[in-house]
Write a structure and sequence with these properties.
This is Ankyrin repeat protein. InterPro entries: PGG_dom. One of its GO terms (cellular component) is membrane. Keywords: Membrane, Signal, Transmembrane, Transmembrane helix. The chain is mainly alpha-helical. Helix content is about 75%, strand content about 5%. The chain has 4 helices and 2 strands; from the N terminus they run αββααα. Strands 1-2 form a two-stranded antiparallel ribbon.
Amino acid sequence: MVVATLIATITFAAAITVPGGINPQDKGKPIFLSDNLFSLFVVTNGIAFFGSMASLLLFLSAINGRYTEEDFKKALPIRLIFASNCLLFAVIATIVAFDIALSMVIPWDDFEMLAVWRGACFWWFCFFVSVS
């Protein structure tokens, strides 16, 4: 539950303070609004936020729910598995959103540095998939 709460906090803050900032002369619109990567960032950030909120609500309902013995054998494990999968999906979407935000803000003139960064993101992606 702590991880889901942290992801929800991070993604909410990233939605309010968009990468690159806002343009004060253009009524506060984001600077990268016309960039295709910005649209992809918004989508992955939203997926991460809603995935973490879904997992948080499912974990809370699993903790606070009243279960009979039969529910304890069937409904609770299904709810916990679904909550864990939502959390995994949120973590992966957060990694992708972070990579996209860095790609927008930092000018990647050095191809080797970009390849190292993408390799690190891919490693974390594979780690989270293998752990689940």
